[in-house]
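User: Structure tokens for this complex, please. No commentary.
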Amino acid sequence: MKFQVRMPGETEGRTVVVTAGAPAFEATLDDAVLTGEALEVRNGVWSLVGRDGRQIEVSVALQKDGSVRASAEGTLFGFELLDELTARALLTTGGRAAKKVRHVAAAMPGRVLRVLVGVGDRVTQGQPILVLEAMKMENEVKSPRDGVVASVESAAGQAVSQGDVLVRFEAGGE
Amino acid sequence: METFRSNPAPRLLIANRGEIAVRIIRACRDLGISPVAVYSEADRGALHVRLSDYAVAIGPPPARESYLVPERILAAAKSTGATLVHPGFGFLSENADFARKVEEAGLTWVGPAPASIAAMGSKTESRQRMIAAGVPVVPGMTTPAESAEEIAAFGRANGFPLLLKAAAGGGGKGMRVVRAEAEVGEAFLRTRSEAKSYFADDRVYAELLVEGSRHVEVQILGDKTGRVIALGERECSLQRRHQKVLEECPSAAVSPELRARMEEVAVAAGKAVNYVSAGTVEFLLAKDGRFFFLEMNTRIQVEHPVTEMVYGVDLVVEMIRIARGEPMSIREKPSPRGHAIQCRIYAEDPAHGFAPSPGRIRRLRRPQGPGIRVDSGVEDGDVVPLDYDPMVAKFIVWGQDRDEAFRRMKRALSEARVEGIETSIPFFLALLEDPDVVANSVSTQFLDDWKYEPRRPAEDVVAASVIAAALASMEEAKKRRPGSAAVPDGVGLSSWRNARACVGVRE
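Assistant:
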């Protein structure tokens, strides 16, 4: 099976072709042929032993959108892994063109302490727009973009859940 | 009538949760005392509850409706027959009124006398007491500010930057740097609001911020015979948002001569308030070797284990012994041996501005082996609630010297696995590689300017991860496909598992 891989910060995509799966894997990453033993120790935790005996324990979490979070040997990193069919489908629909952020949602559950912007305010990227209290800390929620505030969906004192929309931006408006 | 057979040992109620509650439970066990837990609705299944002999519900998740309500704690002590109360750190630990109520209820408070807490608890009063005792202090306001203008005036007279602090504060909460007069208004408002929500006391004051200084603190221990000793210092300069993240004992910046002077001043500070129990005298150590009293923490501290490792004492056990009227078990003052480091593991995402990351821990591998101690309030499968401090564990290592301790901490951090929540472990792995941290050329501002860059994985680690992800994706696709070959019964189970089933060995 063939996959397209995109590492953050790399312009060139990579390909990985798996010709044999677990437990005795064989994969071609770009031009290199890699073989060895792969064991899923538990859900998402893999131990790979290369032909030369090199052992690497990897934890991988796959998201529906193809993004992968991996951690191994004290490092934590992300990349994108798409099987060939999905990758081709995305290509024909124009890929994932940078969507303009239309709103700011709560990244965590908490309580809104103060709202620092009002409808019609012009904000710049990085500008604090409200203060959210969670886990004993006051956290400034910053604007992800330049834009004009179309609506404020939260008020001081209000409890919010993760994903709740706090502020909406006007369409376009940069 | 009791549901279960009761333990005849004396009972100690722990007015706390999480990691420190578990730490105190362990001290109780070492002393043959029966631990009593209290819990909010969010903590019913928490480790500290499951490790205790008795447990009492004290209210809804918000701390101000549970862990911060003295009456609920006292009622829990009464209903379980606890005779001792240990407050841990945070919550009611430095609340003199609560300590007084505990004593008035005929219970034993595991901590200093309420009068000592009161004297040191108000930062302005403690400064006055320390000045009277000849302890050097940083220039600052001697009474809480009535208005932002009062702070601005202090700044104009003494210069900026200032540090705004909650008068009843501690633990890095309710503090804010003010760099210029224009920032005073908003900073005053926010510090007051934080002070009110954390300490139920909105009084704030300002002091001069001595930049480039270190935070070095001395552990003291006093007993009811009037003896007060100092057990060396801890280096706590690495702080983020005024919250310590990594602590060392001893400080590589402190010579034996400086240590002796700091210990002498710390003991004098303790004696000035008739100090009994474990306490910490915090100093600001300037670049030129002068040191100033910052505040005294009249409780056990988060970083106490590094002192325990280097001085071979159990501070929590000593606190309980002392509270029961026994003299401290330390006859001769011990000498420091080796070097210890602690990293506070927070449920935070260092890659996204250290945003809180509560949730269920799907997998937890604790580091183990020589020189490593893990104090934690969670285990595999536990939920880190949103309602409390995000510290989930402390990794503490000991080494013959600082180099060995550093290598061991890196071992501990790389051995650990936490999945389901984000933690500060990757942050520490990067921090321990920093040449200034390795050389100990740091100040309390060091982390303000320090940018976290995740360590980059080696090329073979990337290759292994890509292959593992591809294999995992193929496995998933296989599972989704209907009619895919399921594993037949018994196949894939190890012969070990089968053997267990046959002979009835417990898993």
